[in-house]
# Entry
Amino acid sequence: MLSLRLAYSPDADDAFMFRAAIEGLIDTEGLRFQPVTADTQNLNDMADRGDVDISAVSVAAYPFLADRFLLFAHGGSVGRGYGPVIVAREPFPADELRTKTIATPGARTTAHLITRLIAPEARFTVVPITPYEAIFNAVGSGSVDAGIIIHEGRLTYQRHGLQRIVDLGEWWGRQTGLPLPLGANVIRRSLGEEVVKRASRVMQRSIRWALDHRDEMIRFLISHIHRPDEVATPELLDRYLAMYANEETHAYSEDSMRAIQTVLDRALEIGAIERRVIAEFA
# Structure
């Protein structure tokens, strides 16, 4: 058995994708996976350090990894007309974001990059998404003017008395006519072509298993994934998985692949990266 280090976030869509592969519920073609969980920014950093073989990462982080990692053509989190949201205690026009201090989940997250496109003059402070309540507390306490809400929090922010300023997926769609690709799965190039292809098949098979056993996966997520009570309900998980763990996750559409390249190109335009990076898929 070849053992591979597999890193992903504790959020529902990642656990949904990888469970079958980790637990051997499918044919893993002689591969074994050592799971490591971390928040989104730490996943990006772990991949950058070379600490993992396969990882969920932010699309916006891929330029910093492209020399060492390939993208899978599946496993992504793609929003069609929706995405992370920027919230505040009181509503204000989106164009005022440029004067605000905004809590971000990390400088290399896709949500951060899109927010920079919207409000290039804004000030940012990092508030990791773990613990779950941290971003809501930061906005609610007034220590920041607004916050970028990712993962399941985009469905629960109203319960914390917060107001939506802008939905990043809606804004991106108006600007580009494309869906917003947020997260992607990558694999280390040095594993070699044969292992990369084998791992790609297994990962896609794992996603297919989860989609075909969706009700079972929701029960699993509620009982095994530690999340606040407001998140760990069948109704909310059903909504969240419909958004980010679906057929698009099983295989990127052509416009989603084009959207990934567009994200990378926009990063170059605003100086977030120094050279153009081409999205390469395993």
